[in-house]
């Protein structure tokens, strides 16, 4: 069954996802750009932070798997890992399952930097949200679960597609 299909035939039609996307895309883009311009307390790039976050959540991983999961080519992922390794944020380790293989994992320094940057960005986002009137902040609080669900579905769908 389509998630947008009403279960009650008398219910109004579901909102059009394309129309919603048209309404929020410009604002989402502006907020994204402003957020990353202002919350750039770290000199780590978005792709570097993304790989570090993936390693934090998933544990050690081969570079080809990182490339697949991140939706980038192998040389791009390898270059990003090399930059992180030079800074002492990740390290290469022999793969326990295949001694010929090499995995990448976060270092203690990498975990600390990821935590620091995350805290700074959470603080900045909280400051942005704090500018909303109370009623809109309450509505945004309700929408937070929906935003997280959308992100989970998108990431999980993309990763399962790249695994096949």
Task: Give a quick set of tags describing it.
single chain, 164 residues, mainly alpha, 2 domains, two-stranded antiparallel sheet, 6 helices, 2 strands
Distance between the termini: 24 Å
- Morphology: globular
CA-atom Rg in angstroms: 20 Å
Structural class: mainly alpha
* Order of strands in the sheet with most strands: 1-2
CATH superfamily of the largest domain: Winged helix-like DNA-binding domain superfamily/Winged helix DNA-binding domain
Number of helices: 6
Second CATH tier, the architecture of the largest domain: Orthogonal Bundle
Biggest sheet details: 2 strands, antiparallel
SSE sequence, one letter per element: HHHHEEHH
CATH topology of the largest domain: Arc Repressor Mutant, subunit A
* CATH class value of the largest domain: Mainly Alpha
